[in-house]
Amino acid sequence: MRHDHLITSKQLSRADIETVLDRAAEIDADPAAVADRHANTLLGLLFFEPSTRTKMSFETAMKRLGGDVVDMGSIESSSVKKGETLADTVRVIEGYADALVLRHPREGAAKMASEYVDVPLLNAGDGAGHHPTQTLLDLYTIRENAGLDDLTIGIMGDLKYGRTVHSLAHALTNFDTRQHFVSPESLQLPREVVYDLHQVDESATIREHDSLEEILPSLDVLYVTRIQRERFPDEREYQKVAGEYQIDADTLEAASDDLTIMHPLPRVDEIAPAIDDTDYAAYFDQAHNGVPVRMALLDLFLSEGGETDE
Questions:
Q1: Whole-structure pTM value
Q2: Together in a domain, 277 and 191
Q3: What is the pLDDT of residues 101-144, one digit of tens each?
Q4: For the chain, how many structural domains are there in total?
Q5: Residue 296, Cα to own-chain centre: how many angstroms?
Q6: Of the residues 131, 143, 178, 263, which is catalytic?
């Protein structure tokens, strides 16, 4: 695996993905083995949008590798508030850190920022674009629960604005999967994403539905996403679809006993709390998997510019 930056899941081959997941599994099994591997290394965190799991798991990952973080902090307390451009911000913080993690509300921001820095830059979400590090921990979770080939996966909720969905859908084309997308018509997968998926893999099995009921019995994995209120340009449009897709015990009566339910979190009301203690629920393990996966990514990107040492 050799990349200067991680901007989108489109740049990842099956071999790249397996390299990261295999390294994450090694770290997960024996985290002490890498405890000092990147001592005296600093990771720069630039989060222009709120984050709990992504930000904290990157910070945890860097510290468990023996390094530390420098954090830009909130926009209100930074020079961004004074009108500093993103290009200038990343060029400044590049001088303080060995790698950067960027989250930004504007789609394409990570790609643009990467053109101004020489240290590795990892995209932690760019608007409704991509979230490749989330995708890798999603794939790790899927592999642990259901494998990554001969897989039927349902992806449900906000498919229009959901960057986790766009990233995951692209990555899954590297494997033998059947993808079913469930959403209200107004939140369907963008046509350009559907086109891209078929361009990547002409044989990709991609189906769209407005109801979960017809496909639920066939699913190995159900990936649920929240309706993202903050992405809607019009509050009235959000209210039309809020709460339209929800999973509870009654919903799952038709599901396979081996179904794995995932969610990138945070959730609102898409999955009833009663599901949390069932064998279906994998979303808290999914969140915890962010640490070994991001440890693996940092280890790879901080070692010879992304090349494995194997």
A1: 0.91
A2: yes
A3: 999 999 999 999 999 999 999 999 998 889 999 999 999 999 99
A4: 2
A5: 15
A6: 131
Q: In 224-261, which positions are buried (b, 16+ CB within 10 angstroms) versus exposed (e)?
A: bbbbbeebbeeeeebeebeeebebeeebbeebeeebbb
**Considering 54, 89, 173, 225, which one is annotated as catalytic?**
54
User: Is 131 annotated in the active site?
Assistant: yes
Q: Active site includes 104? A: no
**Structural domain harbouring 228:** 132-287
**Between 214 and 74, where is the model more confident?**
214
For residues 90-121, one letter each, b for 16 or more C-beta atoms within 10 angstroms of the residue's C-beta and e for the rest, the string is: beebbeebbbbbbbbeeeebbbbbbeebebbb
Per-residue pLDDT reduced to its tens digit, 9-25: 999 999 999 999 999 99
CATH number at residue 295: 3.40.50.1370
To the query of whether residue 10 is one of the catalytic residues in this protein, the response is no
- Can you give the C-alpha Rg of the chain in angstroms? 19
What is the C-alpha separation between 276 and 71, in angstroms, rounded?
33
Q: Is 54 a catalytic residue?
A: yes
Q: Which of 38, 64, 103, 104 is catalytic?
A: 103
- Please report, in angstroms and rounded to a whole number, the separation of the first and last CA atoms in the chain: 10
DSSP characters over 21-40:
HHHHHHHHH-GGGGTTTTTT
Counting residues of the chain whose pLDDT is more than 70, the rounded percentage is 90
**Residue 82 among the catalytic residues:** yes
Choosing from 3, 10, 37, 53, which is the catalytic residue?
Answer: 53
